[in-house]
Amino acid sequence: MEIIGVTGLSGVGKTEYCRRLASDGGFFVCEVDKLVYATLDNPDFITRAQKLLNATWSNRRELGEIVFSKPRETIDQYNLLIWSYVEPQIDTAIELARTNGTGILIEYLFLNITKFWDMCTKRVLVTRADGERKRAAARRDSVSIEYIEKRDAAFPFVFDEADFDEVIRVEHRTTAFFAGSFDPFTNGHLAVARAALELYDDLVIGIGINPNKTRAFDRDKMRAAIHETIDTKCIIYDGMTGDAAREHGAAILVRGRGNDEYEQTMAKFNRENFDLDTVFFETGMDICSSKIKKMARDEILGLVPPPVLKLMYGNTAD
């Protein structure tokens, strides 16, 4: 029976590699991270972990922060506690694959310090540039880069490529697309753009042409003001947002608010028709452009970037 062990740091793309290999070769994939996440929700585990950590939490992120703050001995005990729940499930997965006559891919960060390492007939290391890896991990887990760095420090791991039969180097950049009329571009929009650039490799800001709306500010001049405000690509596009996003190589749409029905409807539409997921960022600055256009100059100070403020006073409409 073939048992392929796949490991690498968080965010390198182990799961994507395993799924691709499984579809090509008929392997069963054991995603150990999923078993870990299920364990974190296990009431029995929660009771024992609360006693070990002398703390309570309301979500996984809070649990992570608690674990990161503990001394190394406690972190090691915490990992052993998780493993006591996960190890038997991997044993079961291996037996199931053996019964069905298939091979199995076991994907896990700590695989080479478990008993399953010696069982592997092939060992694969997946690597990725560190900045890209951290952004991918943060995007996947909906946390900040800082959180990922804390987690890396709490669970330090160094791999020796000589220990592996194959090393896969993932070279992939993720582009996000931020669409809007940006009439005008606000500090709320700027906060979304900056947050997106923390998570993704590239960001394209798209100023959409809507024939049903009359603009207050010239698109080309607004694009120039956006360029002056933030160093990222900004384009003007006509037609469907999903088409424009795909044309510019985007895999993700980003938005500032996700709590109203229209935004959720559009997110569903873009997912179903363009295979584009939408990520919403809470900026705390949700004042809309239409309200800003009605304000006096002294009222909007601090609500738009300086280049946009300059554009708003002394420029004509389309």
Report on this structure.
The protein is an alpha/beta fold and 318 residues long. It has two domains: 3-170, 3-Layer(aba) Sandwich (Rossmann fold), CATH 3.40.50.300; 175-312, Rossmann fold. Helix content is 48%, strand content 17%. It contains 14 helices and ten strands. It has helices at 14-25, 32-40, 43-53, 60-68, 72-100, 130-141, 145-154, 187-199, 219-229, 241-247, 261-274, 289-292, 297-300, 306-312, and strands at 3-7, 28-31, 104-107, 122-128, 166-170, 175-180, 202-209, 233-238, 250-255, 277-280.
Topology of helices and strands:
Layout: E1 3-7, H1 14-25, E2 28-31, H2 32-40, H3 43-53, H4 60-68, H5 72-100, E3 104-107, E4 122-128, H6 130-141, H7 145-154, E5 166-170, E6 175-180, H8 187-199, E7 202-209, H9 219-229, E8 233-238, H10 241-247, E9 250-255, H11 261-274, E10 277-280, H12 289-292, H13 297-300, H14 306-312
Parallel strand pairs: 1-3, 1-4, 2-3, 4-5, 6-7, 6-9, 7-8, 9-10
Helix pairs in contact: 2-5, 3-5, 4-7, 6-7, 9-14
What number of domains? 2
- Strand tally, please? 10
Number of helices: 14
Shape: elongated
Largest sheet: 5 strands, parallel
Assess the beta-strand content as a share of residues. 15-25%
Q: In CATH terms, what is the fold-level topology of the largest domain? A: Rossmann fold
Please bin the fraction of helical residues.
40-55%
Task: Quickly give the CATH architecture of the largest domain.
Answer: 3-Layer(aba) Sandwich
Distance between the termini: 69 Å
Q: If you average the pLDDT, what whole number results?
A: 88
